[in-house]
Structure formats: C-alpha cells, structure tokens
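User: Here's a structure from my thesis project, written as structure tokens. My advisor, Dr. K., wants to see whether a designed sequence matches the one we expressed. Can you design one independently, without my sequence as a hint?
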C-alpha cells in the first residue's frame, strides 16, 4: 500500500472480507482524506480476491478503470482508492524477514543485548504483544509486522499461543513506544483485540526475565488496541478498586490466563492454599469481564452454617424457617448481572451442592419457602484449597458439580514458590501500613529482607501482610530490622520438618541467631517442583493428561514422557 510518502505490506486474509477505509471500524485503516470511511471491500473466496466499491466518494479504480460490482483482482493489479494506491501481490508468500524465536532463544538474545546496554550505555525496549483472537496464521502476522515497521535488527519471539515478544534494540523509550503502537495498528486487521506492554532497559531493570515480566504485566493492564508502559510501579496491576502485585513469571502467566478467561462466560475454579490471593484472582476475572459494571459478591462457604447456607445463597420468604422474620433475596439474586465468588466451595454440604448445581444448570433459583422460580444471570468463580478431584473420590463433593465448576481451572502457586514477589509484596504492605498508621515510610534492612525471603509462608500473602502490619507497629527507627519481625521467621525448617506444624510466635527481643540455610542441588529441587505441579494439575483436571499439560503450559508429549519418568498417577495417594 502506498500512502503519501510511506509504503507498507498488508497481508490479505485467506478467506473472508477486508474493509478498507478511514473509519475506525475499517479492517485496514487509511489516513488519507481522499478515502471514505468505508471505501472498499476486498473479498477472498477460493483463492480469488474481488474488490467492491462501498459507494465511496472518490471511487475505486483498477488499472485506471472505475470499478462497478465485484471486480476480480489479478497479480500486479494497481488499485486506486482516492489518492491511495494498492498493488496486489499474489506471488508465493515472501519469507518473513524476522524468524520467530522460541522462549529460550529470545531470552538469550535479550540477555546478550542487555550486556551491550551495560557495555555501550545503550537502551533497549521489550514489547509484549497479546494478540487476542487472530484471523491469519501467526507466520502471516509476523510477516505483516516485519513489513509494517520492524527494523532488521529487531527480534521477534513467541511466549505462548497468541503471545509475541519483540526486542527493540537501541531505541529510546519514546521511540520504542511509537514502534509498539505502530505494531498494534499494523496487526489490527488480523488481530483486532491486540494490545501491548512495553518495558525498557536500563530504566525498568537489567535482567531478561524481569524485563519480559514487566512488559507482560504492562500488557495485562493495556486496553484493547493500545500500549501500556511499564512504570515506576512496575509490577502493580491496577484492577479498578484493587491493586495486585504480579511479578513472578508463573503469576504473570496466571493473570494472562485469567484475562483471557474473563471474556468467556465459563465458570472458573481457582485452586490454591489459603491466603494465596484467590479472591483477587476472582476479582480480576470480574473486572476484565463484560460484567465489570455489575456487582461482585464474595462468600466464604466455610463460614456458612449448614442451616443457613441455602438461604444465604438462594434467599428465603418470610416465615420459611424459625427466625426468618422478613423476606430476603440470596446472593445469587443480589449478584444478578455480575459475579459471585464462592470461596472454599468444597465446604458446602452435599444438599446445598445439589441446589447449586441446579441453579447453575437452569440459571434459575427458588427462595426457601417459595415455589416461584426466579431467573438469575450470574457468573460463578469458585475457589478451594482442597483438591476437589480427591473430594469427589471420597464422596464429599458431587462429581457433576465438579465438572460444572472446573471447566477452567487456575492453580495459584504458594507464596514460597513466587520468590520474586516476596520483597515487592513486603515493601508494598509495609508502605500501606505506615501510611495507615500515619508514620513515615520505612526501609527494610538487608538482613530483615533475607529472613522474609527465606521463610516458608504457610499462610501465604495474608500471613506476610500480617507480619508487615505488625512490623510497622514494632519498628522504632527509619529501618525495619530482623528484631521487628516475629521470632518464627528466624526458624528455618529442616527438610523433614512437618510443614503444617504450628509455629511459635515469641517476643521479638528474645531471639536466637538464624539457623544456617541448607542447600540442595538446584536440579533436584526443580525436578521435585515439576513433579509436584504435574501431580496437582492432574488432580485438578480429573487425571486427564491433555488438560493437565495445558494447565501448566507443558507440551503434551513432554508431559506424557515425564508422567512415566516420575511414575505419576491420576490421583495422589491419600494422606496416611
Ligand atoms: N498479589 C497480591 N498483591 C497484593 N495483595 C495481595 C496479593 N495476593 C494477595 N493479596 C492480599 O493478601 C490477602 C489475602 O488474599 P486473598 O483473600 O485473595 O487470599 P485467598 O486465597 O482468597 O485466601 P482464603 O483462601 O483464606 O480465602 C488479601 O488482603 C489480599 O488483598
């Protein structure tokens, strides 16, 4: 396409239509004022492209002749839309000028580039591109990007399905931002919901993982069709009234998954230990969904007294049971048009589970003491710290409800497996506590941070928050020291310690010096973690390897191979 002084290459879809025009809803947008908002449509069927004038002001000409009706196009035809020229190229597809690197290859190119940043005081940008649904093969999108403004030195990598990362060496932040915007615009006809995040070195960090994570976190908060810049609060994800810190690669992936799930109407099941942030994850689904303007209600099913669970969820009529002095709508009705978060769903009795299943299947509820059915439009996000599949096996959870709730399962890792997030969360909670208590912000000493990072955090993020609230109250100077932390943080568990043993909370003054850390070969630890995650994924998906592999982003063949190597089984052995 030749427009003014610039030219660009735009791939045609293999089948279907492409509307060209100046309007914001055109698939191929042109700036030139001589082009109408919806000027022409190119339809491709069975390998033949035809152009149709959409009653444009300045008409469509092919090789100088004005088009009437649907005009077939041939290789080399020159099409004029007002003053804009398009030349149809039906040659065999030209090779992409940018090979698509895999995760590891991209990572090592970025690491090399970061060395040059240090040595020659250069800058580099990393763009994370979330394509959303796209209508052309990925190779065509890379080709379009290659011809749509990427320079030869830029590097394109793939992070996952529909996720690209682009390395932009030697660009200032502003230039990198322009490139990212141009990229989103170039891909718009084929990926209309694409959005991007940008991080730059040295400003946002000098570590390849950190930069990629920062760009991906920025992309998470970018509205469709736009670019978000990673800012001073690099890992803060603003989700309306909540701010969530997302820094660890596994958590970035999970939040990307949640954003994708949000646009569907699927029920989501969140699995994670207590305090890992399950409610925040449920909120994220709500915030990113079309229901964001509706209510978000959360209930912890473990706190519902059996007798009241049904009325809390589905409501009751006056006199339905002793104590029902007035008619009351239940949470399903109150959450109409929005999202209902059922925390600790495994704690519901079998009787209430049956009613919940009916409400989900029929989208109707009946209040206690009433015979009338009422329609409800509610999206359910459920959470549990238990392995629901095991609960099903033990007869404590209905299998049909398990299948209904677990169409999309998200596993939140415990905080101890998110090492990058511990210092960020600790600082954020300390800052919040100081602001709340009206005291100046506190620094955290290296020794205190070391203790925080080495701790096991059985209570996860909630426990860390509690510790930082308490530390803010204990600290008497400008720096938080180990003496302001509870004694329990000084105790490192030996490998065979019982993980759920209660911890001693002693006064901070009476402390022993920290026990020396024990180390194991890293490969051994990684194998153990991998095995554990695979087992959890299997259990969360009812033992279906294909689904389990997808859940943790592992190719199915690798999963199947390691399944044998690790002697995994569909279910974990019950705890003795
Ligand atoms: N990534 C995060 N960034 C900021 N705050 C967080 C994050 N994760 C959790 N929190 C905070 O930690 C606390 C516990 O989180 P949350 O209630 O979401 O956990 P949960 O897994 O739902 O817990 P439970 O299983 O006990 O219901 C909350 O105050 C929450 O705001």
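Assistant: Designed independently from the structure alone:
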């Amino acid at each position: 396409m030749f427009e003014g002084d610039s030219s660009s290459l735009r791939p045609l879809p293999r089948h279907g239509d492409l509307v060209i025009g100046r309007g914001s809803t055109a698939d191929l947008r042109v700036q030139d004022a001589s082009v109408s908002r919806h000027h022409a449509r190119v339809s491709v069927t069975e390998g033949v492209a035809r152009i149709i004038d959409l009653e444009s002001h300045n008409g469509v000409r092919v090789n100088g002749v004005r088009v009437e009706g649907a005009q077939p196009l041939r290789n080399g035809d020159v099409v004029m839309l007002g003053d804009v020229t398009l030349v149809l190229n039906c040659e065999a597809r030209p090779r992409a000028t940018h090979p698509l690197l895999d995760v590891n290859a991209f990572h090592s190119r970025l690491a090399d580039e970061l060395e040059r940043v240090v040595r020659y005081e250069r800058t580099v940008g990393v763009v994370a591109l979330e394509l959303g649904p796209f209508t052309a093969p990925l190779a065509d999108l890379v080709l379009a990007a290659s011809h749509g403004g990427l320079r030869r030195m830029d590097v394109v990598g793939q992070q996952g399905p529909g996720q690209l990362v682009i390395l932009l060496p030697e660009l200032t932040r502003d230039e990198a931002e322009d490139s990212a915007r141009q990229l989103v615009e170039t891909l718009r006809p084929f990926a209309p919901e694409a959005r991007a995040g940008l991080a730059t070195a040295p400003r946002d960090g000098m570590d390849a993982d950190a930069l990629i994570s920062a760009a991906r976190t920025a992309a998470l908060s970018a509205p469709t069709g736009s670019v978000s810049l990673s800012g001073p609060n690099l890992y803060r994800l603003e989700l309306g009234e909540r701010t969530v810190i997302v820094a660890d690669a596994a958590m970035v992936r999970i939040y990307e998954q949640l954003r994708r799930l949000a646009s569907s109407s699927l029920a989501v099941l969140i699995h994670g230990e207590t305090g890992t942030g399950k409610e925040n994850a449920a909120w994220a689904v709500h915030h990113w969904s079309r229901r964001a303007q509706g209510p978000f209600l959360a209930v912890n099913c473990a706190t519902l007294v059996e007798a009241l669970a049904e009325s809390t969820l589905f409501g009751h009529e006056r006199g339905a049971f002793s104590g029902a002095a007035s008619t009351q709508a239940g949470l399903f009705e109150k959450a109409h048009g929005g999202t209902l978060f059922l925390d600790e769903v495994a704690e519901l009795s079998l009787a209430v589970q049956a009613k919940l299943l009916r409400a989900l299947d029929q989208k109707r509820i009946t209040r206690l003491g009433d015979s009338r059915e009422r329609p409800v439009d509610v999206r359910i996000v459920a959470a549990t710290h238990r392995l629901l599949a095991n609960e099903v096996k033990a007869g404590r959870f209905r299998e049909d409800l398990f299948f209904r709730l677990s169409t999309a399962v998200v596993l939140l890792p415990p905080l101890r497996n998110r090492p990058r997030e511990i210092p960020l969360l600790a600082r954020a909670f300390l800052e919040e506590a100081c602001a709340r208590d009206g005291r100046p912000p506190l620094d955290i000493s290296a020794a205190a941070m070391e203790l925080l990072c080495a701790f096991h955090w059985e209570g996860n993020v909630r426990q860390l928050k509690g510790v930082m609230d308490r530390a803010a109250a204990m600290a008497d100077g400008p720096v938080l020291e180990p003496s302001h932390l509870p004694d329990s943080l000084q105790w490192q568990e030996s490998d065979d310690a019982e993980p759920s043993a209660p911890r001693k909370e002693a006064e901070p003054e009476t402390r022993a010096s920290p026990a020396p850390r024990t180390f194991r070969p890293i490969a051994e630890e990684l194998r153990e973690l991998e095995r554990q995650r695979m087992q959890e994924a299997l259990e969360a998906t009812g033992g279906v390897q294909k689904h389990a592999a997808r859940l943790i982003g592992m190719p199915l063949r690798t999963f199947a191979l390691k399944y044998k190597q690790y002697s995994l089984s569909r279910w974990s052995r019950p705890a003795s």
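When you compare it with your expressed construct, this may help: The chain is about 35% helix and 20% strand.
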